[in-house]
Design goal:
Helix content of chain B: 10-25%
Structural class of chain A: mainly alpha
Strand content of chain A: under 5%
Shape of chain B: globular
Number of strands of chain B: 19
Largest interface: A-B, 60 and 51 residues
Number of helices of chain A: 24
Radius of gyration of chain A: 25 Å
Number of strands of chain A: 7
Order of helices and strands of chain B: HHEHHEHEEEEEEEEEEHEEEEEEE
Largest sheet of chain B: 7 strands, antiparallel
Strand order of the largest sheet of chain A: 4-3-5-7-6
Oligomer: heterodimer
Distance between the termini of chain B: 89 Å
Radius of gyration of chain B: 26 Å
Helix content of chain A: 55-70%
Distance between the termini of chain A: 68 Å
Shape of chain A: globular
């Protein structure tokens, strides 16, 4: 890649990270983040333990004490997030340090079964305290989103030029749901980045011994981010065997050494070792714990998902769900370009003539001249997550984040379609640049105008948030959409002190408190004790809103947080004179 | 490729690119339009206008999603009787407020076989629509049984208390229960498995119809318990309805033709199971409520 393109890729990555870091100050802590924050503190504490008392920390008991919490997900991202906080986080507000809140947290959350964890835990903020702890913990995921943007630019620009690179980058990050999830301390966009990196490494590994080994390392890191990456080995092997079969049909001689090449061996051997090495929880009783890990995800709790006015809780979801929701949340113009790109790529790959006198080997299985079937590779990676979610036997997973790993490959296919069209159009570069700006505009508008509620935003042709509400599509989940009101919340609820927080996780409340963002003196209580309450509008949670009406004696909220007029959160408070005592 | 072939390919590519740019431009305009929200200015104007109306007819909200904002701004839309209205029977005239919606869909859903009302007036406040409807039927609700005094008994004897009736097997009380994801004001029974609850109203003003609904609340309870409920209705000493209702029937309507006059009405509700089925089998701890509402409907007295 040229120095200019490297510079653009780097700049795009940095710009993405910066905008996410700044913008997500307005995005509330999503439900799962609460537990990840707590876990990250413990994981980072383990690294401090290793420095302070290595013998004790590296022993099984020392490892398990820190890594037991949230051990249903790998530790890599949470560890890095914890270390980021150790570096950059401001100290916790008075009365909210781990030691001070452990007893309170134990009483209210799933962490109550954990062993006492505060021995030797220094919870006084980072070495360079420049941001809230939550922001510091979100930063690694935001950096990874920047990496995805840079990788997409580089990959697409390599074959289609700068405009194609910009299109690929924009077609990913300028999607409201991607931009929303990209800024969270969660695994969805990080694993999308990791899967993109593995696929690009695999592609290089077809012609490079170094990448043949490297792809195993990258895959191991991807698995250490989230389990989605576990599908990659079989998928990429299928692609490789498909490419060999295609070559053979075309009269090419396929050697036995090409059938079990270095990259597949690397992915089968190095990747598991790297993944286990990056997850100290698995160092003790690895077989039992790996079995437990797989069992947990095979029997994943069902999420509630609203789809055309119906709540789905148990499989099968309608097969159309991921496809319709993709159309409903991604601008149609990008989907059209993706389709065009897929068609061009398949036609190109099918039309390739086999090279003469070039043989593959163990280390270079598909050498120069052999078709790498990029089209089939990207289409497979774009389609697989959606097809998996669509299967009737798949547990009901919630929103678009569960197939967000497909979107980088949508972006690469869209960029390919773009490149091929302009190659045939024979028009000046300026035309392409102008058209690019127009094509990226719908995504950019919906992303910017949907902020900080990107998860609740819908594509223009659906009619945005209002159109989706009319259709009965979900308005969000995870209880995050309150952050912008937190500074006024105490006044909004008229001085009430007992607040029903509904879908905000207790650990997210704790995080707000640690950062001094939670209203002073307000404690969270069940509806039956509430003087005020929050309701995050989800179909299956309507009952809690009515429970609040009964408790507070009113059906009229005192405030409603909306996106384009669509209520996301209602805030209720009893009249001060009639407040429950 | 020949020159003609190249030209053709170029023209084709330009047409496709042109279509893509037009689509993108259209989507951009649609995105900007979708994000326009003049409602913060328009709600107060609408609220004032509705507050100044010269009738007491109920104000319903056309779209479920609009409910919270509508209730926050428009006091009449927040009245419990409007928010929890069971259907449109016995409502000769009413108002609807919606976002670009005069309420036709909501009316169709709530009619439950009743006569189709006609639109009397439609006023617009930016995107907000206030429409007024009248029904060809002049029938009104004569008495809402389930919001008034009631005698409650079980096999364990009379239940004690007014409002909340405490029985040996549990309790019966007026509640707002989620059935079919909507708020329903009803008498909710929460009693141990197999208990038959008898609710009796000794002096009911009957009209042409006794109408009501039965449903099971709430969502999580329905998810873990599919047991049906038996409903028996008597007027005087005569049994006029016996039906088994399941949670799949949602907000299940019942209607009985009646002779105008005063009579005793008795309802028996028997929920076989009120607990929940989980991974560890059946847990009889009460979680599911059976919700019943009853009204008498007839010509205005």
């Amino acid at each position: 890649m040229s120095a200019r393109r490297s510079a653009i890729a780097t700049l795009l990555g940095l710009l993405t990270t910066l905008l996410l870091a700044l913008g997500h100050r307005e995005v509330g802590y999503a439900r799962d983040e609460g537990i990840y924050f707590a876990a990250s503190r413990q994981y980072a504490a383990w690294f401090a333990d290793v420095v302070r008392a290595p013998g004790e920390a590296l022993a099984a008991a020392g490892r398990d004490r820190r890594f037991r919490i949230n051990h249903e997900h790998p530790a890599l991202l949470k560890s890095v997030a914890g270390l980021s906080a150790q570096l950059l986080a401001r100290p916790p507000a008075e009365g909210t340090s781990e030691a001070e809140t452990e007893a309170e947290t134990e009483a209210k959350t799933e962490a109550k079964t954990e062993a006492k964890t505060n021995d030797g835990f220094v919870d006084t903020g980072g070495a360079f305290p420049v941001m809230d702890e939550g922001a510091a913990m979100r930063l690694p995921a935001q950096v990874l989103a920047g990496v995805a943007v840079a990788l997409l630019f580089a990959a697409a620009a390599a074959t289609g030029g700068t405009c194609a690179g910009l299109l690929a980058a924009g077609a990913f990050i300028l999607l409201p749901h991607v931009a929303f999830h990209a800024g969270l301390h969660a695994f969805d966009v990080p694993v999308a980045t990791a899967i993109l990196a593995v696929v690009l490494a695999y592609r290089r590994a077809q012609r490079s011994r170094g990448w043949g080994i490297g792809v195993g390392v990258v895959l191991g890191m991807a698995i250490a981010v989230k389990h989605n990456a576990l599908f990659l080995g079989p998928l990429l092997a299928a692609h490789h065997f498909g490419a060999l079969a295609f070559a053979r049909v075309r009269g090419q001689t396929v050697r036995r050494s090409q059938c079990f090449p270095l990259h597949l061996v690397s992915m089968a051997t190095i990747a598991p070792l790297v993944a286990v090495a990056l997850w100290p929880w698995l160092w003790a009783h690895p077989v039992d714990r790996i079995v437990e890990y797989f069992t947990f995800h095979r029997q994943h709790a069902y999420y509630n998902t609203e789809y055309f006015g119906l709540n789905y809780n148990q499989p099968p979801m309608p097969i159309s769900y991921p496809f319709v929701m993709t159309w409903a949340t991604v601008p149609t113009v990008l989907l059209v370009l993706t389709g065009i790109g897929a068609a061009f790529a398949l036609v190109r790959d099918a039309g390739r003539s086999p090279p003469v006198g070039v043989s593959g080997s163990f280390t270079v299985p598909l050498p120069e001249g052999w078709c790498r079937h990029d089209g089939a590779l990207y289409i497979m990676m774009a389609a697989f997550p959606l097809v998996l979610i669509a299967l009737p036997s798949t547990p009901v997973f919630g929103g678009t984040k569960h197939w967000i790993t497909a979107y980088p490959f949508f972006a690469l296919l869209a960029a390919h379609g773009w490149t091929e069209l302009w190659r045939r159009a024979h028009r000046p570069h300026a035309w392409q640049a102008a058209a690019l700006a127009v094509v990226l505009l719908p995504g950019a508008i919906t992303t910017v105008l949907g902020h900080p509620f990107g998860m609740s935003q819908y594509a223009p042709l659906v009619g945005g948030a209002r159109g989706a509400a009319d259709l009965g599509l979900g308005r969000g989940f995870w209880g995050h959409a309150i952050a912008t009101r937190l500074p006024q919340l105490g006044a909004i609820i008229g001085g009430a002190t007992r607040l029903y927080v509904h879908d905000i996780h207790e650990l997210a409340v704790l995080q707000y408190r640690r950062e001094g963002r939670w209203p002073e003196g307000v404690t969270s209580v069940p509806p039956s004790r509430a003087q005020a309450g929050l309701v995050f509008h989800e179909l299956h949670m309507a009952t809690w809103e009515y429970a609040l009406w009964e408790q507070l004696g009113t059906t009229a909220p005192v405030d409603v947080i909306t996106l384009d007029g669509v209520p996301l959160v209602s805030i209720y408070a009893a009249d001060a004179a009639e407040r429950p005592r | 490729m020949s020159t003609t072939g190249t030209d053709r390919t170029t023209a084709w590519a330009l047409r496709v690119l042109g279509a893509i740019v037009v689509l993108a431009a259209a989507e951009s305009i649609a995105a900007a339009l979708a994000a326009r929200d003049p409602s913060p200015v328009m709600w107060p104007a609408l609220a004032d206008a509705i507050a100044d109306r010269d009738d007491d007819d109920p104000v319903f909200v056309a779209q479920d999603w609009l409910g919270p904002t509508a209730r926050m701004h428009v006091a009449a839309a927040a009245e419990l009787t409007a928010v929890t209205h069971p259907d449109l029977h016995g409502v000769p005239r009413f108002h609807m407020i919606g976002w670009g919606d005069d309420g036709s869909k909501a009316i169709a859903r709530a009619l439950e076989g009743g006569p189709v009302p006609s639109l009397v007036q439609r006023r617009e406040y930016g995107p907000l629509v206030w429409s007024t409807w009248t029904s060809p039927s002049t029938d009104v609700v004569l008495q809402t049984l389930t919001s008034g005094a009631v005698e409650v008994t079980t096999s364990g004897g009379p239940c004690r208390g007014r409002g909340t009736h405490r029985c040996a097997e549990g309790e019966v009380r007026p509640r707002i229960i989620e059935v079919d994801y909507r708020p329903r004001a009803c008498l909710a029974t929460a009693v141990s498995d197999g208990t038959t609850v008898r609710m009796r109203w000794p002096n009911v003003q009957l009209g042409e119809r006794l109408r009501g609904h039965v449903g099971m609340g709430d969502f999580n309870a329905r998810l873990r318990n599919d047991a049906p409920v038996r409903v028996v209705v008597r007027i005087g000493t005569q049994e006029v309805l016996r039906r088994t209702v399941t949670d799949l029937q949602g907000w299940s309507p019942l209607e009985i033709a009646t002779d105008p006059g005063v009579a005793a009405v008795e309802v028996e509700l028997t929920a076989g199971l009120g607990g929940s089925f989980g991974a560890k089998g059946y847990d009889g701890t009460h979680t599911r409520s059976t919700c019943i509402e009853l009204r008498t409907i007839g010509g205005a007295p």
